[in-house]
């Protein structure tokens, strides 16, 4: 049985949404970060970072929300959450799957901390560039790859929802609002929100 280690009101949301979209049976293992459960020796064997979320599946174990999305979509292709490895859309899928941890998250941290870094040095360029690029990519829709919803929408949708709606660190734009409305209307997103509320 797949086990998802999670804590309420945390980045676990991305993987709760993933598992609810997947339709796969899974067990939720509450790892409440307010109690320090994420630093327990047994948990560190699952995620040596001592953070949530993490996932185990038989002998496989991993942390990092986007990696968990990639793992589930590839290990269980019946979930139809990723284009096949031979599909040309796979390239953009991978780009957007990792855009959230690689660009959206650091851009939010930059906005929060007001740290100035030259755009050629910062791996995400600048927060303005990240959100301009995302706006252009979401202009057509309905999903980041076009017609097909994928695990990349789970990482991008979670990151954008966090930045624009939950923490209001990034001003919304019409393309973001339309996309986030589509994401939040999904029954799996709504189930995940209820679970994540704790
Ligand atoms: N890069 C990680 C970030 C995970 C993360 O920062 N988790 C936070 C909760 S949102 C956490 O576990 N904090 C508790 C701690 O560090 O002790 C991912 O994307 O999964």
Q: How many extended strands?
A: 4
Radius of gyration: 17 Å
Our count of helices gives: 8
CATH topology of the largest domain: Glutathione S-transferase Yfyf (Class Pi), Chain A, domain 2
Structural class call reads alpha+beta
Bound molecules: glutathione
Runs with pLDDT <50, length 5+?
Answer: none
Total domain units:
2
Strand fraction:
5-15%
Please give the order of strands in the largest beta sheet: 2-1-3-4
Quaternary structure state of the chains depicted: single chain
Helix content range: 40-55%
Mean pLDDT: 97
Gross CATH architecture of the largest domain: Up-down Bundle
Shape: globular
Outline the structure in words.
By secondary structure, this protein is α+β, with helices and mostly antiparallel strands. It has two domains: 2-80, Glutaredoxin (3-Layer(aba) Sandwich); 89-189, Glutathione S-transferase Yfyf (Class Pi), Chain A, domain 2 (Up-down Bundle), CATH 1.20.1050.10. Helices cover 52% and strands 9% of the residues. The chain has eight helices and four strands; from the N terminus they run βαβαββαααααα. It has helices at 12-22, 41-46, 65-75, 89-113, 127-138, 151-166, 174-184, 187-196, and strands spanning 2-6, 26-30, 54-57, 60-63. It has a four-stranded mixed beta sheet with strand order 2-1-3-4, with helices on one face. The protein is globular, with a radius of gyration of 17 Å. The two termini are 22 Å apart. The relative contact order is 0.15. The model has no long low-confidence stretch (mean pLDDT 97). Residues 10-11, 33, 38, 50-53, 63-65, 101 line the site of glutathione.
